[in-house]
User: Which sequence fits this backbone?
């Protein structure tokens, strides 16, 4: 136990004194947040107030939709729906089988889809629609939330929550004898690899979560954007995201002999691509991916975190949380298994 | 027996890095592994320490077979790797404490050992410094402190003086002698023959992964035919007396090195007197004249046909 504590202490010191670590873990996310705030606020405001939805008169969910304050229900026969979508009179049309037709992708279309998904799910569970207060669950404090810039911030949180990738790479480099000089020395000592890895994961989690909290505090109190309304599930998601990031970093670290800087650049590139697919550069991308390649949204860890943070906090919907957490845990298990294949080696053909 | 290596073979694809390499190290020795760069010294150490796989051979340390899981053996070993292997963001004191802590759990003992190690390498004034503030020589000293702080019985020092200034080099060599006096057995790899001569009780000369010869400094020098070298520089042309020089008693070879001639002798006495007599008889002017005993470089040269520094 003493050894683990000492390892945590020294690995922590070694990390937080590292300027590149400080930059990527602490400063870079804040810079990105400031960038998003200055670049996108004001130009991306979308008014959720009157989302025009087309629906046939005899559709069973018409009354439910009419009761939702942010939706304007247009009674539209199916044959006219395409014309109205083309003209932009309605932003989505729901047919009698509860299928949603849209002309373009956007936040309003996403909102309609989320509500429709919720109704479908309740139908499958035989829960009467009247029991669900859509207005309350979907639109709390609308003035705050009715701003699509928030989605960028959820995506940013998603990205930085997997920034455990950096300390993960550092852990791997420090313990794998074929990767660094320090690691050679460590492997000649009586240190148990498992002990070192465990300490590394703990300190990486602590440091990365601390940086996540700092970013959230910055966004909340400096940029005045409240992101987290439901702390419990959000924190769980961010925690599992952190574990994913560290595991991913360990794999990136042990699986190749690239230089440390090259690995860091590679990990930044990968996280940026995953963030891009999750809508960090433009929320429309997320909507497009969800529509055209839904599997990407379902397996992309940053999308999982972003979508769920968005659902939990913006729509008050935790229905996808379990699946999201299980998918991330699945990722963690697979990555760990592959990393183990590399980490179990104690002697090398060449170093 | 502290270390016993028998018929160690290590191949890198077509290249044979260690070719049936064997060695034995007794407790209390300073054993030097001497050979040119790339001769297999570091590979041998990495195999002995179970960092590298090897194709064939047996390795025992402290009477037990060495494996990657031999934690009880590892506790008694210290390593000073060729490359400086420290944490760049921990201070001198923290680095020493961290590595010492991998071996010594008791906090008060560790504190004492860390202090002694820092004193030992002369870094007391720098103990709160981060490595980036240290010169190359001081970093090497820290590298040593991290390897010896836990007072190991067996210490491997892999070319610890490479790229070190003369002052730090002497400091390091004196320190190694002190460690040995305090009871540690040392295995020291180097390609500097002067260091091996100055430091080691016994030397193994390596080339192309093989143990060419081993013995004390004197034993190794006694293995070769050259017993004396006389270096002479002439102020005039001596082409016509080269044959006379060669006919001097006991001369085995004459080699021109820059402006000087190196005349090698085997056995015999009065070689210098005979040479001076010849110079006088032929009215030659000499600019320098001195006698040298053979060095380990001569041993290496005679065994391999090339110089240690080639």
Assistant:
């Amino acid at each position: 136990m003493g050894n683990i504590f000492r390892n945590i202490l020294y690995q922590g010191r070694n990390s937080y004194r590292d300027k590149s670590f400080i930059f990527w873990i602490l400063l870079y996310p804040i810079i990105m947040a400031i960038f998003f705030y200055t670049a996108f606020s004001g130009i991306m405001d979308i008014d959720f107030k009157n989302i025009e939805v087309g629906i046939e008169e005899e559709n069973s969910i018409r009354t439910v939709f009419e009761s939702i304050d942010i939706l304007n229900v247009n009674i539209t026969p199916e044959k006219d729906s395409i014309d109205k979508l083309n003209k932009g009179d309605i932003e989505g049309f729901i047919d009698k089988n509860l299928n949603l037709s849209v002309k373009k992708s956007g936040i309003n279309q996403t909102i309609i889809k989320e509500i429709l998904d919720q109704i479908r799910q309740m139908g499958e569970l035989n829960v009467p629609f009247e029991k669900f207060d859509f207005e309350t669950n979907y639109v709390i404090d609308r003035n705050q939330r009715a701003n699509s810039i928030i989605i960028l911030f959820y995506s940013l949180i998603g990205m930085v929550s997997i920034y455990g990738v950096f300390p993960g790479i550092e852990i791997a480099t420090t313990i794998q004898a074929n990767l660094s000089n320090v690691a050679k020395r460590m492997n000649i000592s009586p240190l148990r690899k498992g002990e070192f890895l465990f300490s590394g994961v703990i300190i990486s989690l602590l440091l990365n979560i601390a940086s996540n909290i700092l970013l959230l505090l910055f966004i909340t109190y400096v940029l005045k954007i409240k992101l987290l309304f439901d702390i419990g599930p959000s924190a769980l998601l961010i925690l599992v995201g952190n574990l994913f990031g560290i595991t991913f970093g360990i794999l990136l670290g042990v699986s190749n002999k690239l230089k440390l800087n090259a690995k860091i650049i590679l990990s930044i590139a990968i996280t940026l691509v995953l963030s891009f697919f999750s809508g960090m550069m433009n929320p429309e991308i997320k909507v497009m991916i969800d529509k055209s390649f839904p599997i990407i949204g379902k397996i992309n860890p940053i999308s999982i975190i972003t979508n769920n943070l968005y659902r939990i906090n913006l729509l008050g919907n935790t229905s996808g949380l379990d699946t999201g957490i299980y998918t991330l845990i699945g990722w963690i298990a697979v990555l760990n298994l592959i990393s183990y294949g590399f980490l179990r080696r104690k002697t090398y053909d060449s170093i | 027996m502290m270390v016993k290596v028998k018929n160690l073979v290590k191949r890198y694809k077509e290249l044979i890095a260690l070719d049936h390499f064997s060695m034995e190290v007794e407790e209390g020795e300073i054993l030097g592994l001497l050979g040119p760069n790339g001769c297999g010294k570091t590979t041998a150490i990495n195999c002995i320490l179970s960092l590298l796989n090897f194709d064939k051979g047996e390795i025992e340390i402290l009477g037990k077979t060495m494996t990657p899981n031999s934690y009880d053996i590892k506790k008694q070993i210290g390593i000073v790797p060729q490359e400086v292997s420290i944490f760049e963001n921990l201070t001198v004191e923290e680095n020493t404490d961290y590595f010492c802590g991998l071996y010594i759990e008791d906090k008060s003992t560790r504190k004492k050992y860390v202090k002694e190690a820092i004193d030992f390498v002369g870094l007391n004034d720098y103990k709160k410094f981060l490595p980036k503030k240290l010169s190359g020589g001081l970093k090497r000293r820290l590298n040593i402190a991290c390897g010896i702080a836990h007072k190991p019985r067996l210490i491997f020092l892999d070319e610890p003086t490479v790229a070190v200034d003369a002052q730090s080099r002497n400091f390091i060599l004196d320190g190694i002698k002190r460690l040995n006096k305090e009871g540690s057995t040392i295995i020291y790899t180097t390609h500097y023959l002067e260091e091996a001569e100055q430091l080691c009780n016994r030397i193994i000369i390596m080339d192309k992964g093989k143990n060419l010869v081993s013995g004390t400094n004197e034993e190794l020098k006694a293995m070769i035919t050259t017993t004396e070298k006389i270096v002479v520089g002439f102020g005039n042309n001596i082409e016509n007396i080269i044959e006379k020089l060669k006919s001097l008693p006991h001369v085995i070879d004459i080699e021109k090195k820059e402006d000087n001639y190196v005349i090698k002798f085997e056995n015999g006495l009065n070689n210098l007197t005979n040479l001076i007599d010849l110079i006088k008889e032929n009215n030659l002017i000499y600019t320098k004249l001195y006698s040298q005993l053979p060095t380990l470089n001569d041993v290496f040269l005679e065994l391999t046909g090339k110089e240690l520094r080639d």
